[in-house]
Amino acid sequence: MTAQDFKQEQQRLHETIHYMDRILNSSKRDIETAQENIRTAMANVEYLDSSDSFLNILMNTRFFELARNQKEGLEAIRQKPYFARIHFQRENEDEEFLYIGKTSLFHSETHEPIIVDWRSPVANVYYDGRLGDITYDVRDETHSGHLFAKRQYKIENGELINYRDVDLTTNDELLQEALEGKADVRLTEIVSTIQKEQNEIIRAHLRQPILVQGAAGSGKTTIALHRISYFLYTMGEHFNPEQLMILAPNRLFIDYIADVLPELGVDKICQTTYAQYVLDALNLKLKLQNPNEQLEQLIANPSVQQEYAMISKTKGSAFYELMMNRYIEHYEQQLAALFEDVFIEKYRIMKGEHLRKLFLVEFHYMPVEKRLERIKKVIQTEVKRKTAAVLATLNTRYEDAIGRALNGMRDAEKRRRTVTKLIDERDARVPKIKQEAKSVATVNMKKFQKVKVKQLYRELLTNRELLGEVAPEWPLEDVAHFIKAHQKERWVLEDLAALYFLQAKIKGIDDKWKMRVVFIDEVQDYSYFQLAALKAGLETDMFTMVGDLAQGIHSYRSLTEWQPVLSLFPRATYATLQKSYRTTIEIMDVANEILMQMDEDLPLVEPVVRHGKEPEFIVAEGFDPAIIQDVLVKIRDNQHQSIALICKTTHEAVQLIGQLENSDVPAQLLDENSAIDQQKLLVIPSHLAKGLEFDAVILTSFDTPYDDNPLDRKLLYVALTRAMHELYLIGPSKEAFLMK
Ligand SMILES: Nc1ncnc2c1ncn2[C@@H]1O[C@H](COP(=O)(O)OP(=O)(O)OP(=O)(O)O)[C@@H](O)[C@H]1O
């Protein structure tokens, strides 16, 4: 870095910021003008031609929003307009320097790019790794060019601190520096150090599903969020943010990522949990048993819970999906039997058989109740068409009969009576037919009562005969267990997939909840049927799914391998991420020891080359706040802020917090609904720590030590891999942490 170069870069930065300030000022003026115009138009609404004023208000509101978005966008990046530069030459064009930032900025007169968005096609060459001759794709067309150099900047508060040219060695250095940062700022600052294999997932074909098996700390959550941002940038013309949905494991996790979303420009998308989404989409109020309590019971007593686990597993399986499909078929057949010929008076307008065929075959692609609505419309149209013919026939017949009476009857009195009778008869029948024509469709379809999906499902759970019909291959003993377990009305997460599936097939999912693109974090905690139901209800396969089987702590009810997901999404790309960016080598070594003990044959996690403090094992017979106090002092001396104390169960966490409250250690017990207070020591049961990360983690293992079983190994693995820089293990022996 020569002084001359530095000066030039500094100048470029100052010019950029200066230009941004100019635009900012003009946006502010635009906002004021638009506001003023809206005020005037509002005042005139009463007495001017109101449609004009209304149009005026609409236009100015749009104008106002544009100006406000521009202002907010610029303010967000003003302190750090860009983070990298590429020295690049497109084929047959001049060499150019492109500055890459979080959003783009073009010169309003020359239209030259001042900052290029990191999501733009050309920015891909920055992430793709190589220098030299390269290719990049724009809208499915491949372009070539030559990349001379990549440069990364450190800019703080609008001032250039330094910069470095990036090659393979400096890439690692820069990454390490980024990883050394604190937990609270890291998630937002990754755009500059996204790695090649991560970039490939972010930019993988957007209209196709993707499934990522990524080690703990490999950046799955980060990548999912960046992929959303990339998606909106690239596909914004075709999709609104409201059509996208992120499914996260719990509220705690949603709050944790919520800070990052506005930064990535993706704050408008629906962020929810599977349970909440299903309840919203079905407009249902159900009190679900807390799945974490279920898990806790399973942790406390694995053998007693076996039967329960069997039911949970079934409810998530492809077999359960088959059962639901058979149940729907059974219900359809019941309805189909109700179709009858449609008559108006004595005239048959439509055959029942035809309607049944419409219902079972032609309209089968629609949800049941939508089919019934459609059939009602078909009847209405047909009735309308045929009523005219019926009336015409009737009129002709009467006219013929009257004509015959007039011409053929000699007796005048008899003739008069006959003709009068015929006319009276006709005058009575015609309006009746017209009347009947209006209501015949409704009357015919009345027998198709709408069902409540919840009741329909509940009926299946306890009806032996029905279960025999939809699950003939189920051993009687299992059916009996199943029915017994459902005697009392109780709802669990595992029921939601079935409810959603029935809703989708019987009523259809409301447009408001019919998201077109789905991002799922921690997908290993889903069951096959949860995913299948969602896919069926949304009628899309545009799913981005990221997860880690090694962290599958809910495997009693969820996936234990990826194969079923890949068969459900045959178009899916499958990618793996083996590198961990979160943890130091020293901490990962400990975590890998546990990974090796797992039944799943997962490869060891490779930490990126970053050394840190050796994990410290502290022998203690019982929990002692004084030890924690000492550890906290050490951690804070190392400038680390976010600290978690993780133990196996909620039960133990509650006990520990009680003891800490009696000492001087400010601590907070985290549950799913709490907001994190970074100033305090966070006490967390292992299963809730999933997805989170902390500068330092203290693991304790006293009253509820980790046992040598598959579930406990995963809980321990999750707990260990939360640590970024420091790890402390406190317990009576290493065995309490499944180590030798
Ligand atoms: N390319 C990168 N540059 C800098 N930091 C990164 C990069 N990739 C990931 N990280 C950091 O690594 C940490 C782990 O990322 P993230 O939480 O997304 O991983 P994860 O795979 O979802 O982990 P887990 O499965 O354990 O929840 C985060 O602090 C993230 O900021």
Automatic annotation (TrEMBL):
Gene3D superfamilies: P-loop containing nucleotide triphosphate hydrolases (3.40.50.300). Residues 193-584 form the UvrD-like helicase ATP-binding domain. GO terms for cellular component: cytosol. It is an enzyme of class 3 (hydrolase). The keyword Glycoprotein does not apply. GO terms for biological process: recombinational repair. InterPro entries: DNA_helicase_UvrD/REP (IPR000212), HelD_bacillota (IPR048228), P-loop_NTPase (IPR027417), UvrD-like_ATP-bd (IPR014016), UvrD-like_helicase_C (IPR027785). ATP binds at residues 214-221. This is Helicase IV. It comes from Solibacillus isronensis B3W22.
